[in-house]
Specification:
mainly alpha; 8 helices; WD repeat
Length: about 130
C-alpha cells in the first residue's frame, strides 16, 4: 500500500507551491521584477506573468524597465513568455502589454535567434491577425 507515501508527496508539493506563491508575492511587493518574472514563468502561470508585466509598465519609465527585465531572461523563459503573450494579445484588455513584450523581443533579439525559438512559427501565425 503506497497511499500514505503518495499523500505525503502530494502534501509536500502543495506546501512547496504555497511557499513559491508567497515568495512571488514578496518579490512583487519588493519590486524585484526579474526574479518575480522568472518564478512566475517557472510556475507556469501566464496570468501572474501578465500581472508582473503590468506592474512593471505602471512604474515610471515602465517600458525601459520592461526591456531591461525581458532582455535578462533566459532563452527558455523568453519562449514561455512568447507563448503566454499570444493568448494575452487576443484580449483587448491585455493586448498593450503583449505588444510591449513583442516590441522588446523584436528590438533586442536577432531574427536568426527568434527563428530558433520553439513554437515561433505558430506564435507568429497567431499574432498576425491581432497585431
Amino acid at each position: 500500500d503506497v497511499t500514505e507515501i503518495e499523500e505525503k508527496e502530494a502534501q509536500a508539493k502543495q506546501e512547496e507551491q504555497i511557499i513559491k506563491e508567497q515568495e512571488l508575492s514578496n518579490l512583487l511587493h519588493e519590486k524585484r521584477y526579474l526574479k518575480a518574472l522568472g518564478l512566475a514563468i517557472s510556475l507556469d502561470r501566464p496570468h501572474t506573468v501578465l500581472m508582473v508585466v503590468k506592474a512593471i509598465l505602471k512604474e515610471t519609465d515602465g517600458r525601459k524597465h520592461l526591456e531591461e527585465n525581458i532582455v535578462r531572461l533566459r532563452k527558455d523563459q523568453k519562449e514561455a513568455v512568447l507563448t503566454f503573450l499570444v493568448t494575452w494579445n487576443t484580449n483587448s484588455r491585455n493586448c498593450h502589454e503583449a505588444q510591449a513584450v513583442i516590441e522588446t523581443l523584436l528590438k533586442h533579439e536577432a531574427p536568426d535567434t527568434l527563428l530558433q525559438y520553439s513554437g515561433i512559427k505558430s506564435a507568429v501565425e497567431s499574432l498576425l491577425p491581432y497585431t
